[in-house]
Write a structure and sequence with these properties.
mainly beta, four-stranded antiparallel β-sheet, conserved putative lor/sdh protein from methanococcus maripaludis s2 fold, about 300 residues, Elongation Factor Tu (Ef-tu), domain 3, OB fold (Dihydrolipoamide Acetyltransferase, E2P)
Length: about 300
């Protein structure tokens, strides 16, 4: 009888062991999984600073006052004393000419009459200080008729930049405001916007002349630059780093994630003001200096998200 009972228990032992293993598996898996992971985030506080918002428009360099230098007589070009882009002074010799009569007489002219030493030699001088903006004759030896254009001298002191400003932005140029002129090599000049010309471009833009205060060196004509006009100023603006601000797909709604404690962040809708690279004005709400706003790890977080603050 005892041996038969022992045999039955021995047969049931594998089934009992299998049931025990299956029953303990969920508890073991739960222990391995642990608590849900929390987003790793960083936070900053708001700051207060003066902000300025700009609008940038293209403009073209031009010299409105120019003088065309022409050949006073018909003759041969014997010397070209300037190059394109050279800065010249009033009275500086630009070209030398020789009339065909002197060339026909050659060296015998002094034997005929020593007082005719300079006969038929003509020096052409610059009528005003400026820059050689156009050089029509670049080498000697050519025969020119009287009145032929030799070059054009643009008065460097009259350099301006022509700005075609869309009419909807005309308020930015009222009152002769100061502006910044950015050259293609990143050189920055300070300039003043003059009154608009009495014309409108085909694109319905007003034409303004921007005069640089202290132009450096020689600026070629028809150079395309960028003119930066002030659109808005915000003294003592409440700002946050740009990565703090989140937006929907249509860019109509904006918000930030604010920490309510070290492990929970809530969604706070905000109204934006002046935006600059790296900094954005928050017009509302007004945050406390102690409020902590997420600056990293905030993308895609839901309201009341569980987070882990890192330093």
């Amino acid at each position: 009888m005892r041996s038969r009972l022992f045999f039955r228990l021995l047969c049931c032992l594998p089934a009992l062991l299998l049931t025990a293993c299956r029953g303990g598996a969920p508890a073991d898996e739960e222990d391995v999984a642990g608590p849900p992971a929390r987003a790793q985030v960083q936070a900053v506080t708001v700051s207060t600073q003066n902000l300025t918002q700009y609008r940038t428009f293209p403009a073209t360099s031009t010299y409105p006052r120019k003088s065309t230098v022409t050949a006073p007589v018909a003759g041969y070009v014997t010397g070209v004393k300037v190059r394109l882009g050279d800065r010249v002074t009033a009275g500086q010799v630009l070209f030398t000419l020789e009339t065909k009569e002197r060339r026909a007489l050659g060296s015998s002219i002094q034997r005929i009459d020593p007082s005719l030493k300079g006969f038929g030699l003509v020096s052409v001088a610059a009528p005003s200080p400026g820059i050689i903006s156009v050089l029509n004759v670049q080498q000697s030896g050519d025969y020119l008729l009287e009145g032929t254009a030799l070059c054009t001298v643009a008065e460097s002191s009259r350099l301006v930049f022509q700005l075609n400003l869309p009419y909807e932005y005309h308020a930015l140029a009222q009152g002769n405001p100061t502006c910044t002129i950015v050259l293609p090599d990143s050189t920055r000049l300070t300039g003043t916007v003059q009154a608009p010309l009495a014309s409108v471009s085909p694109g319905q833009s007003e034409v303004y002349l921007v005069r640089p205060n202290n132009p450096p060196g020689v600026i070629p004509e028809n150079l395309i630059v960028q003119v930066r006009l002030t659109q808005a100023r915000r003294p003592q603006a409440q700002t946050l780093p740009t990565p703090c601000v989140l937006a929907d797909e249509t860019l109509h709604h904006f918000w930030v994630m604010k920490l309510v404690n070290d492990s929970t962040a809530v969604k706070v809708p905000v109204t934006l003001g002046v935006q600059q690279p790296g900094e954005t004005e928050i017009k509302s709400p007004i945050f406390s200096p102690n409020d902590r706003i997420l600056s990293a790890g905030n993308y895609g977080l839901a309201d009341t998200a569980r987070v882990k603050l890192t330093r």
